[in-house]
């Protein structure tokens, strides 16, 4: 499993931002905050438009490891690199990784990696233990794996395949990935509590190495609600965002865009594959009560960034693994957020 760092400063109080006096929204606030606290959350926040309507715990506190929310951030970095002309997501990975030329991996494109349909070698021990936990040079390990299938034949949540994007980004941009992320995304958004960790050889961990805060993730969600703009400056193109979160990227999983989770109907893979390293075939949408345009970045131990364009809403939960029996997870959190927003 992808693991390992306990989140500091667990949420212990209930401080909500709401109008004085009893109301349905007050009750929904209280229920969301109490369920998040019972789930050992470090922080939880909900913003509607430019107004924060729930902010509990320590949204600007010490950064917490966001695990596979990192993948969605990596998707944005690829989009920015494409906008700048460094690559096209239709490009073969072998254009940037010479060792893949004239091999069974030569046909794999960047888009195949973004959609989890690359056919790259995968089994749970190789992916979660040998690459994620043990490999000192995670990029080299991921690049050295072979092919299990032709691209586009199967959907597999493959951490090693996503880590290949570290090599692609560095080769395409000529910059270390953490530097590219800092100058092109984190700094323009004012994400002062956000960073990418490195592996033992200095490669950015682009599959699960993001450390961040609730406030920073809320700002990231706001970027997507504002079609890639911040303070009148374009950070990422609408065209890429539409491909990333505007609809399924593959017929193999209706719930997946470009490293983002979607709320679309159809055959899907349960998002527990990202939050608990388990998952199986289901029928979407992931949260039937949520609007179809809802999308999420998800990480191990129920790290959640939720964006609902039709409600102009962003919500975040970060923290430790919810205790067994807490009933907390993607659906419960999402439904609690929707109740707060809709009862306002």
From TrEMBL:
Keywords: Hydrolase. InterPro entries: Beta-lactam-related, Beta-lactam/transpept-like, Diverse_Enzym_Activities. SUPFAM superfamilies: beta-lactamase/transpeptidase-like. It comes from the Bacteria. Coiled coil: none annotated. Residues 64-324 form the Beta-lactamase-related domain. Gene3D superfamilies: DD-peptidase/beta-lactamase superfamily. GO terms for molecular function: hydrolase activity. PANTHER family: BETA-LACTAMASE-RELATED, BETA-LACTAMASE-RELATED DOMAIN-CONTAINING PROTEIN. This is Serine hydrolase. It comes from Microbacterium salsuginis.
């Amino acid at each position: 499993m992808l693991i390992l760092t306990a989140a500091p400063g667990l949420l212990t109080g209930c401080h909500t931002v709401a109008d004085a006096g009893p109301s349905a929204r007050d009750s929904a606030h209280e229920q969301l905050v109490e369920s998040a606290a019972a789930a050992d959350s470090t922080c939880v926040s909900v913003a509607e438009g430019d107004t924060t309507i729930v902010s509990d715990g320590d949204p600007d506190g010490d950064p917490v490891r966001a695990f596979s929310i990192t993948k969605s951030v990596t998707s944005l970095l690829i989009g920015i690199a494409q906008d700048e002309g460094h690559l096209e997501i239709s490009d073969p990975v072998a254009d940037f990784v010479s060792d893949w030329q004239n091999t069974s991996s030569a046909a794999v494109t960047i888009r195949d990696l973004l959609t989890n349909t690359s056919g790259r070698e995968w089994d749970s021990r190789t992916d979660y233990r040998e690459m994620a936990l043990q490999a000192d040079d995670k990029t080299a390990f991921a690049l050295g794996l072979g092919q299990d299938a032709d691209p586009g034949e199967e959907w597999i949540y493959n951490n090693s395949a996503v880590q290949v994007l570290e090599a692609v980004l560095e080769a395409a941009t000529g910059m270390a990935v953490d530097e590219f992320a800092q100058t092109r995304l984190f700094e323009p958004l004012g994400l002062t509590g956000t960073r990418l960790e490195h592996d033992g050889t200095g490669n950015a961990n682009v599959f699960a190495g993001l450390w961040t805060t609730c406030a920073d993730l809320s700002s990231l969600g706001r970027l997507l609600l504002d079609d890639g703009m911040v303070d009148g400056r374009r950070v990422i193109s609408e065209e890429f965002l539409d491909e990333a979160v505007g609809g399924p990227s593959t017929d193999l999983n209706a719930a997946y865009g470009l490293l983002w989770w979607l709320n679309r109907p159809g055959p899907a893979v349960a998002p527990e594959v990202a939050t608990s390293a388990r998952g199986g075939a289901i029928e979407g949408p992931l949260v039937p009560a949520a609007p179809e345009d809802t999308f999420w970045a998800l990480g191990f131990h129920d790290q959640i960034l939720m964006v609902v364009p039709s409600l102009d809403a962003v919500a975040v939960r970060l923290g430790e693994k919810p205790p067994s029996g807490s009933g907390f997870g993607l659906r419960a959190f999402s439904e609690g957020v929707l109740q707060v927003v809709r009862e306002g």
